[in-house]
Each structure stands twice: as C-alpha cells, then as structure tokens.
Amino acid sequence: MRRVRVIVRGDVQGVGYRYTMRMVARAAGVAGWVRNRRDGTVEAEIEGTPAEVDEALAWMAEGPPGSRVEGAEVTDIDPTGIPGFEVRRDA
Predict the structure, then answer these.
(1) Is 36 an annotated catalytic residue?
(2) Where does the record place a coiled coil (predicted)?
(3) Per-domain residue ranges for the chain?
(4) Is 88 an annotated catalytic residue?
(5) What are 69-86's pLDDT values in tens digits?
(6) Catalytic member of 18, 22, 35, 89
(7) Does residue 44 sit in helix, strand or coil?
C-alpha cells in the first residue's frame, strides 16, 4: 500500500475540485480525504495500491474543467488503512 499527502496549487477552489476528486478517488479505489486550505490550495491524502494512487495523482495534476493546476507537491507518508474517501471541512 502507498499513502501520499498532496498539496495542489493553482485555481483549484470554487471549481468543484474536491467533489470531483471524491468521485475520481472512489472510481480509482483509493481511500483518504480532500479539503480546501485557507491559502487557496487543496490538500489531500490518498491511499491504495501504487497503481491506484498513480491514477488519482494523474487526475489531480489536471483537475476538473474550470480549474488550472499549477503544480502538485506529493509527499509519501505511512499508510493508515482507513477505508473510504471523504471531503473534509476547510482547514
């Protein structure tokens, strides 16, 4: 299993990024969460097989229509095994 924390920069708030991310995550089979941050970025943690995580990361680099992703900082962290994927309150 692989778990990563991702910080996505660009025009990624107010464009449906988090809710589309939830659909993408569920389709890819990854667990975790996503939320907006006060600095205008989106933060997420995703966990799954390396192939599942790569699939979700590829979408995160593009984002939904209307967004403009400038970059994504990906950091590997220890897997937790928590199931499901949720949209969290803003941080």
Answers:
(1) yes
(2) none
(3) 2-82
(4) no
(5) 999 999 999 999 989 999
(6) 18
(7) strand
